[in-house]
């Protein structure tokens, strides 16, 4: 029996430019993503077994613990790629990142699964193989694995690291509102758009050690604000806030919000920070 515990950080989108729709139905993107200090934790154990067995459990009642979960899919893909035919993989997931919130909660857990298994199996797969699996499983896993700050292109799976920012972060989300990426892009496609270019404008400022909050932008925000009045209220009450990913979270680079939120109706995280890491082992 071998066991490891890893932390999986959430991400925010500082920019999200939709370049166009692809033939495969996805959209080409250009985005600056940043990891932040809000973590899920995976405890992963491997034991000897006949054939392959996967057991997944955790703290959240909002996610499935079967083969539809990205953690389960990542485990299956890893074992298949590594040629491992006999193993029992047990995973306990401490879920802190809100579900369907635009923070890559599922993606970061999937990336953490790959990281954990590769460590437990003495790095049997190369970095290139792990990144290939990440790209097969979803758009954000490659970034979540690496963390820090990066320009993400194609579906989001191609990443180019840039210097990470040191910023305080606060996050708010309507407690009962969940938005899938599919829904957000469908709403985007219903609106008329000109191609935006906020990513390319902001990157030089970051590289030179400066930052211009006026260049923070998310192309998906307009559609979601039009559909959900509670999201539009965020922007009205907090003009400097921005939606991350497909929503439904809004965030500001501030230690604490000036607006008070009813904690029964909203999930609020304050005093977070941007971080330069991705998936990491936890030493206890």
Terminal Cα span: 18 Å
Estimate percent helicity.
25-40%
Radius of gyration: 19 Å
Alpha-beta content class? alpha+beta
| pLDDT averaged residue by residue | 95
CATH architecture title: 2-Layer Sandwich
Q: Write down the overall geometry.
A: globular
Number of domains: 1
Helix-strand pattern, N to C? EEEHEHHHEEEHHEHHEEEE
Account of the 3D structure:
The chain is of the alpha+beta class and 284 residues long. It has a single domain, classed as 2-Layer Sandwich (Ribosomal Protein S5, domain 2). It is 29% helix and 32% strand. The protein is built from 8 helices and 12 strands. The protein has helices at residues 70-82, 105-120, 127-137, 141-146, 181-190, 198-207, 221-227, 229-237; strands at 2-21, 27-47, 52-58, 87-94, 149-154, 158-162, 168-174, 217-218, 242-243, 250-252, 266-273, 280-281. Strands 1, 2, 3, 4, 5, 6, 8 and 12 form an 8-stranded mixed beta sheet that branches. The longest helix is centred in the middle third of the chain and has 16 residues, at 105-120. It is globular. The chain starts with a strand and ends with a strand.
């Amino acid at each position: 029996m071998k066991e490891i515990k890893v932390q999986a950080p959430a991400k925010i989108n500082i920019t999200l430019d939709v370049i166009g729709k692809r033939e495969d139905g996805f959209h080409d993107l250009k985005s600056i993503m940043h990891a932040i200090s809000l973590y899920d934790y995976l405890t992963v154990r491997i034991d000897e077994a006949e054939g392959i067995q996967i057991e997944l459990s955790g703290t959240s009642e909002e996610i499935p613990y079967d083969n539809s979960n990205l953690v389960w899919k990542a485990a299956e893909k890893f074992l298949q790629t590594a040629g491992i035919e006999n193993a029992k993989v047990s995973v306990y997931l401490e879920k802190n990142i809100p579900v369907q919130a635009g923070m890559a909660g599922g993606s970061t857990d999937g990336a953490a699964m790959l990281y954990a298994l590769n460590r437990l199996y003495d790095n049997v797969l190369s970095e290139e193989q792990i990144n290939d699996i990440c790209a097969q499983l979803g758009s954000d896993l490659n970034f979540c694995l690496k963390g820090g700050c990066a320009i993400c292109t194609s579906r989001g799976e191609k990443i180019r690291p840039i210097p990470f920012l040191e910023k305080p972060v606060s996050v708010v989300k309507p407690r009962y509102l969940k938005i899938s990426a599919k829904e957000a892009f469908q709403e985007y496609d219903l609106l008329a758009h000109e191609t935006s270019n906020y990513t390319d404008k902001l990157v030089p400022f970051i590289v030179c050690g400066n930052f211009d909050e006026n260049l923070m932008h998310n192309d998906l925000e307009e559609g979601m604000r039009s559909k959900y009045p509670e999201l539009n209220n965020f922007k009205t009450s907090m003009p400097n806030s921005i939606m991350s990913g497909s929503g439904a979270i809004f965030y500001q680079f501030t230690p604490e919000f000036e607006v008070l939120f009813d904690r029964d109706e909203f999930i609020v995280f304050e005093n977070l920070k941007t971080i330069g890491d991705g998936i990491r082992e936890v030493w206890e």
